[in-house]
Amino acid sequence: MAHLKYKPVPRKLSKDITLLQHINNGNTALQYIELKVIKMTSGAVFQEKLGKQEVCIVALAGKITVTDGEQTFEEIGTRENVFEKIPTDSVYISIEQTFEITAISEATVILCYSPSEKKKATALIKASDNTIEQRGKYQNKRLVHNILPDTSPIADRLLVVEVFTDGGNWSSYPPHKHDQDNLPLESKLEETYYHEMNPRQGFVFQRVYTDDRLLDETMTVENGDVVVVPKGYHPVGVPDGYDSYYLNVMAGPTRKWQFHNDLAHEWILTRE
C-alpha cells in the first residue's frame, strides 16, 4: 500500500507556534513539493532562511505580517476560517531569502515550497488578485480561487489554488492526471491536497490511481489531513451534509498545468 495520506501530528516549534503538517521528500515520494502547515498564537514570530527553494506563504486564516527584510506586508489575511469562502492574501518569496511571519491574531499559515534556481522578485498576492471560477455542473460543482495559476509570472515552479466543494458533489472530477512530461498534451506535476471540512467532524473520499492500477488507493480523508499525489488520477467525493475545502500545491519540471482526463469517464463532460 502506498503512503499517500498524512494525519496532522502537532509538534511545538516554540511555545507560540505549532507545526501541524510537514510534507517533504524525506517522508513522501515527492521531489518538487514541500509543505508546512503552522498554527500561530497572536504575537508569535516564525523566521526561516530559504536555500534553493521558493515559497508561497498563504494566510489561510487570521492576520499576519510578512517581511523579507526589504519589503513588509502588514496585516494581511482576509478571513477567520476558510469556509467564509472568500479569497485570502499570500506572499511569494524567492530563493536564498530570509523571511519572517508575525501573527497579528491567532493564525493558520500554509507554506508551499518548491526547488528553484531562478531568482524572482518578492510579491504580495492580494486577495483581489485571485481569479475566481465556478467549475462543473450537476453534481460536479466547485468554487476555485487561483492564487498562483500557471498564467502568473510571479513564481518559477509553484502553482497554488484553493477549491471549495459543497456536500453531495465531486471535485477533481472527472478523474484527471498530470504525470507525464509530454507537452503540449500533458505536463508532469506532483500535487498535494491539504483538506478541511465543515463541520469539522466530516470526511471526504479521495482515490489516487494509475491506468495500470499498480497504484490504486481510496482514502477516507478527515479535517487537517494532507494527501500527496506523486502520479495518477485523483478525484474527491464529498458526502451530503458536509462541505469540503482543499488547498492544492503543484510543481514539476515545467510550470504548466496540462491535464489528461481518464478516457473511461470523459463522457461525463458531454452530458446535456
Write up what this structure looks like.
This protein is mainly β. The termini are far apart. The protein has a 7-stranded antiparallel beta sheet with strand order 1-23-20-25-15-14-13, with no helix packed on it. A 7-stranded antiparallel beta sheet has the order 2-3-4-11-6-9-12, with no helix packed on it. A 4-stranded antiparallel beta sheet has the order 5-10-7-8, with no helix packed on it. Helices cover 0% and strands 50% of the residues. It has a single domain (5-270), classed as Sandwich (Jelly Rolls). It is built from no helices and 26 strands. It is globular and about 50 Å long. The mean pLDDT is 97.
Key attributes of the depicted protein:
single chain; about 270 residues; mainly beta; Jelly Rolls; seven-stranded antiparallel beta sheet; 26 strands; 5-deoxy-D-glucuronate isomerase activity; IolB_Bacilli; KduI/IolB_isomerase
Present the secondary structure layout.
Elements: E1 5-6, E2 11-14, E3 17-23, E4 34-40, E5 45-49, E6 53-61, E7 64-67, E8 72-76, E9 90-93, E10 98-103, E11 107-115, E12 123-125, E13 131-135, E14 142-148, E15 159-165, E16 170-171, E17 176-177, E18 179-182, E19 186-188, E20 190-198, E21 203-209, E22 216-222, E23 226-229, E24 236-237, E25 243-251, E26 260-261
EC number: 5.3.1.30
Family: Belongs to the isomerase IolB family.
GO molecular function: 5-deoxy-D-glucuronate isomerase activity; glucuronate isomerase activity
